Amino acid sequence: MTSTTTTRTMTTTAVMPDRPEDHPDDPAGLADAAGTLALLRCWVRETGLAPPVDGVLRLDLACAGTTVEAPVTYWSATGWHSFGPAGFAGGTPVDAVTLAALLTTESVWRRGNPGSRAAGAAAIADLAGRVADSVRRTARHVEQRRAAPHDPAATTPFLRAEQALLLGHPLHPTPKSRDGISDADAAAYSPELRGSFPLHWFAADPTVVSSDSGLARPAEQITAALAGDELRLPPDTVAVPAHPWQARDVLARPDVRALLDAGLLHDLGPTGPPWSPTSSVRTVYRADAPVMLKLSLGLRITNSKRENLQLELARGMAVHRLLEAGLGAALRTAHPGFDVVRDPAWIAVDTPARPESGLEVVIRDNPFGGDEQVACVAGLVAERPDLPHRRSALATLVHRLAAKSCRSAPDVAQEWFARYLDAVVVPVLWLYGAHGLGLEAHQQNTLVVLDAEGWPVGGRYRDNQGYYFSETRSGGLSRWLPGAGRDLGTLCPDEVIDERLGYYVGVNNVLGLIGAMGSQQLADEGALLVTVREVLARLAGEHGAALQLAGVLLDSPTLRCKANLLTRVDGLDELVGPLDAQSVYADVGNPIAEVGA
Question: Is 3.30.70.120 the CATH number for 375-555?
Answer without folding.
Answer: no
